[in-house]
Every structure is written in C-alpha cells, then in structure tokens.
Write a structure and sequence with these properties.
Layout lengths: L1 E3 L2 E4 L13 E2 L6 E4 L2 E4 L4 H13 L12 E2 L2 E2 L8
Antiparallel strand pairs: 1-2, 1-3, 4-5, 6-7
C-alpha cells in the first residue's frame, strides 16, 4: 500500500488526490489472515526488508526512514492505513 499525506493512493486510490513529494509505503507479508474483517499479517524476515531496500536504492528511490510493525501479546501495535 502507498499513501500520501495519510491518504491511500495505491492500489485503487482516487486519481484526484492532491499529492506531495513524501510517500509512505507499507510492505507486509503476502499471506494475510482476516479475523473479523481485520487483517492479521504474518511475520516477514529482516532479510526480505533488506533485499527490498537494495532494490529500491538500485532503482534510484531514496529511503529516508524505516519502521517495523509489531504485535504485543497478540494485539496490533500499529494503526492500519486507509482501506487496509
């Protein structure tokens, strides 16, 4: 999912959304379980994140920050994005 100013722009974003030059991309495991319509993401390996960062850098994208998403005692410790 890609957001701009906290508004989802990909996939299925509104093409009329006003965007700035600061984007947020959330990468999660492709395996997701729905529990009461709420997504439960499975763990990904740090090596997958590093591989993705290498690919982004090779494609001339600047990565200014990374954050890991965690669960605590089975509860999500992060907010879901719009439409997630």
């Amino acid at each position: 999912m890609i957001t701009n100013r906290r508004v989802k722009v990909f996939p299925n974003g509104n093409p009329e959304t006003y965007c700035t030059d600061h984007w947020r991309c959330r990468f999660v495991n492709q395996q997701v379980q729905l529990k009461n319509e709420t997504p439960q993401y499975l763990t990904i390996n740090y090596s997958d994140v590093i591989d993705l960062l290498v690919e982004l850098q090779a494609s001339d994208f600047d990565v200014i920050k990374t954050e890991n998403l965690y669960e605590f005692d089975g509860q999500r410790g992060f907010s879901l994005g719009q439409g997630e």
